[in-house]
Automatic annotation (TrEMBL):
Residues 26-93 form the Ig-like domain. PROSITE patterns: IG_LIKE. Keywords: Cytoplasm, Disulfide bond, Phosphoprotein. Gene3D superfamilies: Immunoglobulins. PANTHER family: OBSCURIN LIKE CYTOSKELETAL ADAPTOR 1 (PTHR35971:SF5), SI:DKEY-31G6.6 (PTHR35971). The keyword Disulfide bond applies. One of its GO terms (cellular component) is cytoplasm. It is found in: Cytoplasm. It comes from the Eukaryota. This is OBSCN protein. The lineage of its organism: Eukaryota, Metazoa, Chordata, Craniata, Vertebrata.
Length: 93
């Protein structure tokens, strides 16, 4: 529930009203991605942590946006974001 808006204090005879504006804080990284080394055919897992829960994120390899599929699994729970790369191949580097 958003808290921004107008609030009124009413005595019955008089009223006073004020507006509350809530400025959103930017989403920042608490823990950054770390390099991962995996053997061919194995699973690589990349993990980072954000300052705000459930913030929208996008995973990319180069310029290509990754979508969940048999190769890539994307998990996000609260501030924790993970990318699993299954059946790693040298061309995935």
């Amino acid at each position: 529930k958003a808290d921004a808006g107008e609030y009124t204090c009413d005595t019955g005879d008089q009223q006073t009203t004020a507006a509350v504006l809530v400025k959103a804080l930017p989403v920042l990284f608490k823990h950054w991605l770390k390099n991962e080394e995996v053997e061919e055919g194995g699973t690589a897992m990349l993990h980072c942590e954000l300052t705000k829960p459930d913030a929208p994120v996008e995973w990319r390899k180069g310029d290509r946006v990754l979508q969940p599929c048999d190769k890539y699994e994307i998990r996000q729970e609260g501030t924790h974001v993970e990318l699993f790369i299954y059946d790693a191949e040298a061309q995935d580097a």
